[in-house]
Amino acid sequence: MIQRSLLRHVQAIRQLPQSYASRTTRIIPGATQRLPALSSHQTLSSQRFYSAEPATSTSSEYSSTGSASAEAQEQEDPIKKELDSKSREIIDLKDRYLRSVADFRNLQDRTKRDIQSARDFAIQKFAGDLIESVDNLDRALGTVPPSKLAPQNSDPDTPPENRDYNKDLANLYDGLKMTETILMGTLKKHGMERFDPSEGEGEMFNPNLHEATFQTKVDGKEDGKVFMTQQKGFLLNGRVLRAAKVGVVKNS
């Protein structure tokens, strides 16, 4: 519609000079012939230039812009997807690395504990077999009464058979005692210790260290106290090698 109206307007402007030329006008002497002046609207309209190409619609412009943005998004999407996948892969690899480091450190600690335990308890079987020999040595020393170890009568005129003191027995006892002391010192260097819960005032009964063989009333003793040791106990680097067999006070 706009093009048609413009064409009609142009044709009307072109026909104006012919209509004016066909009219008879009175010529005044000394005056120049003038053509009627065109209106300002006709003059401006005659000077306009119009494109012969058909005008593009706004919808086509929007469609072209939308297609361009869609193409840009399609070009960016593969890069974004690849970046996201690489980020997830990095997170997964980092998690695996940290887990591997933690497992390796746990393995190192566990190996150290196993090595130390093997060192500490390497002589456990040997120590268990040696306990009986230590017990026999302790029993031999316990059979000698103290009265036989020190002279009770210092009168030189008393016959030897009437004397309680026996020098040879005392010397033998001293030798055995020294042997026991050296043996227990050597065992202690390797982590083996002997304990007697009835020494001193007596310890309270501990089921982790003691084995109660009987209970009885004892005046002046607290319930649960160890008042007698039938068999001494042994520890190897803090581990119970043999529990001590004891008698426990029970007054109530």
Report on this structure:
The protein is α+β, with helices and mostly antiparallel strands. Helices cover 53% and strands 12% of the residues. The chain is built from 5 helices and 6 strands. The strands form 2 sheets. Strands 1-4-5 form a 3-stranded antiparallel β-sheet. A 3-stranded mixed β-sheet has the order 2-6-3, with no helix packed on it. Helix 4 packs antiparallel against helix 5. The termini are far apart.
Structural topology:
Layout: H1 2-22, H2 40-46, H3 58-120, H4 124-142, H5 167-189, E1 192-195, E2 210-216, E3 226-231, E4 233-236, E5 239-242, E6 244-249
Parallel strand pairs: 2-6
Antiparallel strand pairs: 1-4, 3-6, 4-5
Helix pairs in contact: 4-5
Descriptors for this entry?
alpha+beta, 53% helix, 252 residues, 3-stranded antiparallel beta sheet, 5 helices
Give a short synopsis of this structure:
The protein has 252 residues and is α+β, with helices and mostly antiparallel strands. The chain has helices spanning 2-22, 40-46, 58-120, 124-142, 167-189; strands at residues 192-195, 210-216, 226-231, 233-236, 239-242, 244-249.
